[in-house]
Design a protein that fits this description.
alpha/beta, Pyrimidine Nucleoside Phosphorylase, Chain A, domain 2, five-stranded mixed β-sheet, aromatic amino acid biosynthesis
Length: 328
């Protein structure tokens, strides 16, 4: 199939047709490369992101999940090599009795992705994949390893590797959770992308979602400065800015949450769950507060920080991790 000219913005129908053909292997590799690079060069529109996510969702291996399940994840690609903030946040929020359908992968642009760090903590990824639905239902958390749920991307891997730069497919993972979550906290790697990404998410049927980016280009809520926030509810988008001091937390230098390899990050995550006070803890408290707002577990950022801190300090999040590992 001949792909449309990517130099002009695509309509929803044209974009869906194009991505359906790409995902179904109906296009020449060179044509796909040229199409994806040109889209990235001019910057993808909300319509194109929504269309691509719709087609990916239609081809993913879905799982059953509680109606109130949520996810917290980022697009990656921020180059910060930080500790695993969304993974720690997932554990803390799950310890607050919010079912957590964590969708993730191994490291791409960082030294340790969610899968790498969870594996270093003792989670058997193969068993976690097999028992995901049961774990989510009975323990309240599960990890859904992205390659197991998006087989249509397999044939594109060599093409994407050859391109060697970000394409639209790097933006789609958070929007294509196999548990079909209706509530989600998503981080994007540039504040300039928040509005476009929020518009795409608003068209994908979320009950409530929060799109965030630290002003330094962090795909999380930043503990170092202000973050741009887009709250999506009922198809409407409200924009705001949040800084750590707005919710009673201190600012920390970005280097204070620098990560390392999987074992380094796993050790830091375990220390956080054991109650260690640190910049990492504050970053996780801030992001957990955002997720708890999305889940409507709390009504304010301050209450979210307080509930997340309680889940850590009472040992609930650490106990949950231990239970998860023991019951694979």
């Amino acid at each position: 199939m001949m792909l449309p000219d990517p130099r002009t913005n695509l309509s929803l129908d044209d974009a869906k047709t194009a991505f359906a053909a790409i995902l179904d292997g109906k296009c020449d590799a060179d044509e796909i490369k040229a199409f994806l690079v040109e889209l990235a060069e001019r910057t993808e529109t909300a319509t194109e992101i929504m269309a691509a996510a719709t087609e990916m969702r239609a081809r993913m291996v879905a799982v059953e999940a509680p109606a109130n399940a949520i996810d917290v994840c980022g697009t990656g690609g921020d180059g910060s090599h930080s500790l695993n903030i969304s993974t720690a946040t997932a554990l803390v929020v799950a310890a607050c009795d919010i079912p957590m359908a964590k969708h993730g992968n191994r490291a791409a642009s960082s030294k340790s992705g969610a899968a790498d760090t969870l594996e270093a903590l003792g989670l058997d990824l193969a068993k976690a994949a097999t028992n995901g639905e049961e774990s989510l239902r009975e323990i309240g958390i599960a990890f859904f390893f992205a390659p197991n749920h998006h087989p249509a991307l397999g044939s594109l891997a060599p093409i994407r590797k050859e391109i060697g730069r970000r394409t639209i497919f790097n933006l789609l993972g958070p929007l294509c959770n196999p548990a079909k979550v209706k509530r989600q906290l998503i981080g994007v790697a540039s504040p300039d992308l928040v509005e476009t990404y929020a518009q795409a998410a608003a068209g994908l049927g979320y009950e409530k979602a929060m799109i965030v980016s630290g002003e330094e280009g962090l795909d999380e809520l930043s503990i170092s400065g202000p973050s741009k926030v887009a709250m999506i509810e009922g198809g409407q988008i409200a924009y705001s800015v949040i800084a750590p001091e707005d919710v009673g937390l201190k600012r920390h230098d970005a280097n204070a949450i620098k990560g390392g390899n999987a074992h380094f990050n796993a050790a830091a995550l375990r220390q956080l769950l054991l109650g260690e006070k640190s910049a990492y803890r504050d970053a996780v408290l801030l992001n957990s507060a955002g997720a708890l707002l999305v889940a409507e577990e709390v009504q304010s950022w301050e209450d979210g920080v307080e509930e997340a801190a309680e889940a850590i300090d009472k040992g609930l999040a650490n106990a949950l991790l231990n239970c998860w590992i023991a019951n694979q």
